[in-house]
Amino acid sequence: MYTLLKAFIFTVYLSSGVLFAQSDKKPNVIIILMDDMGYGDTEPYGMTGIPTPNFNKIAAQGTRFTHFNVGQPVCTASRASLLTGSYPNRIGMAGVLLPGADRALNPKEKTIAAMLKDAGYDTAMLGKWHLGNKPPYMPIHYGFDSFYGIPYSHDVWPVTWDSIRVTNPKDIRYDWPAVPVYDGDKIVDSIITHKRASSLTAELTEKAVKFINAEKKKPFFLYLAHPMPHAPLVPSDRFKGKSGMGLFGDVIMELDWSLGEIMKALDENGIAENTILIVTSDNGPWLHFGDNAGSAGGFKEGKSTAFDGGTRVPFIIRWPSKVTAGDVNSSLITSMDILPTIAAATGSKLPVERIDGLNFLPAWTGNDKTGPRELYYYYYDGNSLRAIRYKNWKLVFAHTSNSYTGPHGRGGEPGKIIKEEEPMGLYDIAHDPGERYNVLDLYPVVVEKLKKYAQEARNDLGDGLQHIEPTNVRPAATVK
């Protein structure tokens, strides 16, 4: 229990205010979250052939993290961990919500938005929520002053991948409604065609710029959660065909343009210096879409797997004069760590309930390159502990996993996701980032150490693989 105790003591120390000396003006905070954007989908992380000048610019002006992992490799769970600083299974938000879901993020959980609102910030969310499908479980009930966007992914509709109405009653999509567009708690539009979906990136960007222009004189928090590059890929007419690398390249170029518009708005309003700007993704790429999917950057597998292709994604932070420009940081960091670090940077009060994130402000500002995190638990498929990371070591437990080694799709049609039995394996991530070489038999002492850490997690959060019930979790909201 040493590691858990260490994390608890560190969190208490942070909340005491010792680590933060507040400036006269609190920094603005913007988080831009892409959907299914893989580690290798932009030039700063190795993409070739698709120009991303604005991703390049923020990387040059900020710090790029290379070992950033999300809470779980799927939409709902990942977003829950980012906004609450907790493992998603701790708060009942593992997996993904679909229409008719009987649960939502519990409004008792304190989000980044609620934390900053309490600290005097104006808050707004734009884009994909995916933590509740209907009022009163929309963002304005979780600390956001305003919300415009969709409750879940834009492929959750009664339409096939080639934009034809689903007519087979056995298809899960048959009874799904058109994707509702919300303004606060009110449905103001719906999305049922690729053409309408293709306007989302520009529409959300325009609203983000308007929010920045209106809020320039007071501290604000903007959470822009783009629905792309999640399939189906629907770039606007302005970008369609522009990349020369198909729809995926076009979508990435449009997202790069969007990032550029945000940075330009900050510059024009004279607030770039005092704005924490974060760009990241909710999970790895949906690889079975083939040429319509992104790149895991050489890591194993992708979305919906506990391999690094599913959990390790881009994470870039720019905060001029505070964050070192053009730096690269290889610290192990997770989406849970964003909330407590923003709390430290803004002098905000942490949630009363226990969280799992750690304060990375010294690592963000370059004062401590190593960061405070040594452990990360790869939970997936409800509450199954599939792997554990300790420093450069990753121990994978035997489990049945999704795999993209089956036939890939083409032209927007998905391929086949197959199931594979994964044996227990130990991987040295420093020398084997692709998790190809199992060195389990070579390092028995390391294996036993990681097993002990894993048992700590099981005693705390449980483990579906071993039929161990959790002891320190909180329920999601029940939707009636």
Automatic annotation (TrEMBL):
Limits of the Sulfatase N-terminal domain: 27-347
Short name of one Pfam family: Sulfatase_C
InterPro entries the UniProt entry points to: Alkaline_phosphatase_core_sf (IPR017850), Sulfatase (IPR050738), Sulfatase_N (IPR000917)
UniProt keyword annotations, A-Z: Hydrolase, Signal
Signal peptide, first to last residue: 1-21
Highest taxon, organism lineage: Bacteria
Record-linked CDD domains: GALNS_like (cd16026)
Family: Belongs to the sulfatase family.
Protein name: Sulfatase
Organism annotation: Flavobacterium rhizosphaerae
